[in-house]
Here is the input.
Amino acid sequence: MNLLRGLAVLILFQGIGEGISHIAGIPVPGPVIGMLLLFLALQFSHTETPAWLGRTGHSLIRWLSLMFLPACTGLFFLPDISRNQWLPIAGAIVLATLLTLLLAALLMQKLMSAEGERP
Amino acid sequence: MTAWLATTLLLVLTFAAFAAALWLYRLNRGRPTLQALMHPLVTGPLMVSAILVAAHIDYDQYREANQLFFFLLGTTTVALAIPLHQQFHHISRLFRPLIITLIFGASFAVASALVIAWLLGGSIETLISLAPKSVTTPIALGLSEKIGGLPALTAGVVVFTGVVGAVMGPLIFRWLGITDDRIIGFVTGICAHGVGTTRAFEISARCGAFASLGLGMTGALTAFSLPWLVIFFLD
Here is the structure.
C-alpha cells in the first residue's frame, strides 16, 4: 500500500512536469521538471520526507540499471551513418569522457581542499 | 506469433538479461577492474542485442514492448529529488566548488569532444550530433533536433558516453587516489548523466545525491546555452 502511495505521488509529479514541458514548449524534459517541483515541494514543506515516499524512491533508484537496459540496447542498433564517421564518434566519446573525468575530478579536489573540506 | 505473446516475451527478455547480468557482476566481486567492465549496463544490453539479432527481431519492436521501462525511467528521474532533498545540506555548503566544477566540466566535455572528432575527420553533422553527448537522453534528443543533428545518432552517443563514464570513472578515481564520494558523485553526474548516477548510487546515498545534482545542473546549463553557441558558430 505504501509503495503504491509513493508511486502515485511520483507519477503525479512526472505528469505535471510533462504537462508544463509540453504547454510551455521548453526543451527541458517533463521528468526533469517533475524532479525540480518535487524537490521544491520537499524543501518548502519543512518536515521530514514521509517514510513511504522515501522507501518507494530509494527502491526505484536501486533498480535504475534495469530501467536503463532497453535504452542502452539501442546503442547496438544505431542508424546507418557513413563508415568513416565511426572513428571520430567513438574516439571523441572515449577520449573526451576520460579527459573530462580526470580534469574535473582534479579541479574539484583542489577547490574543496582550498575551502578546507575534509572527505 | 500473436502480438501480446511477443510483447510478453520481449519484456521477460529484459528481466532475464538483467538477472543474468547482475549474477555475472556479483560473481566478479573482489576484482574491481574486471567488475567495472562487467557492469550490468554493459553485459545486459549485449545479451539482449545478441538475442534480438539471432532471432531477427528489430530494435523498434523490442523498444515498443519495453515502453514500461522507458516510462519508469521518467518516474525514477522524479524520485531523484528525494536523495537530493535529504542530502541538500551538504550541497549548499559546497556551492563554490560545485559551480566552478560544473561550468568547467560541462563546457570541457562538449569542447574536447568536438575538437577530437574534428581532428579525426568528423563531418559537421557528426559534430552537431556529438555536442549534446553529456546531457541526459531526453534533453539531448530535443537539443539535437533543435540544432540540426541526427537525434537517433545523438541517442546512441549519449548512452555510449554514459556507459564509458560509469565504467571508466571508478577506475580513474582509484588511479587518482580520490576517495571522497562527493567528488566521485558530482563528477560522474556531470560526465555520465543517468547511467553514471546509477553507478554513483551503488557507491553511497551521498555519492548518488551529488551525481543527481551534477546531472540536473549539467542538463540545465547545456540546454540553455548550447543552441545559442551552435547558432553563433555556424552562422
About this structure: Chain B has a mean pLDDT of 85. Chain B touches chain A through 109 residues (CB under 8 Å). The radius of gyration of chain B is 19 Å. The CA atoms of residues 163 and 195 of chain B lie 6 Å apart.
